[in-house]
Design brief:
Helix 1 runs parallel beside helix 2, helix 2 runs antiparallel to helix 3 and helix 3 packs across helix 4. Helix content is 47%, strand content 0%. It has a single domain, classed as Up-down Bundle (Four Helix Bundle (Hemerythrin (Met), subunit A)), CATH 1.20.120.330. With 123 residues, the protein is mainly alpha-helical.
């Protein structure tokens, strides 16, 4: 989606947010922790800190990614994102995904490893 020649960076940013959100929700589900319907990754990370206190160090990544759940939902509402914005979000999502995968047993990784990026490549 983010590849040239015609990248869809708004959609790619949404998927970065979704990857991080689903990863943290998966961690919460693994620990049988209920959570409200939300797209707020920061709130989800805070909810997960009793199981993994080290997630406090990643709250800023949640703050960066959370707005992309809805920011580009309506065309023309905000300017199209730039490549640098996407690159920053992708890096944040990959970091968060790697941390969460590292907190879960390998049996639940579904083919991903903490060393892979969102494209499935070794980081």
């Amino acid at each position: 989606m983010a590849a040239p020649p015609d990248p869809l960076l708004d959609t790619a940013l949404y998927h970065c947010q979704q990857a991080a959100e689903k990863a943290v929700k998966g961690l919460l589900l693994f620990h049988d922790q209920d959570f409200e319907k939300t797209h707020d990754i920061t709130d989800l990370l805070r909810l997960a800190t009793p199981y993994a206190p080290e997630l406090n160090a990643f709250l800023a990544l949640g703050e960066l990614l959370t707005p992309y759940a809805v920011k580009f939902r309506y065309p023309g509402a905000v300017p199209e994102p730039q490549r640098a914005e996407y690159d920053q979000a992708q890096e944040a999502a990959e970091k968060l995904l790697a941390v969460v995968l590292g907190l879960l047993p390998a049996a639940v990784h579904l083919g991903l490893s903490p060393q892979q990026n969102l494209k499935g490549e070794q980081a």
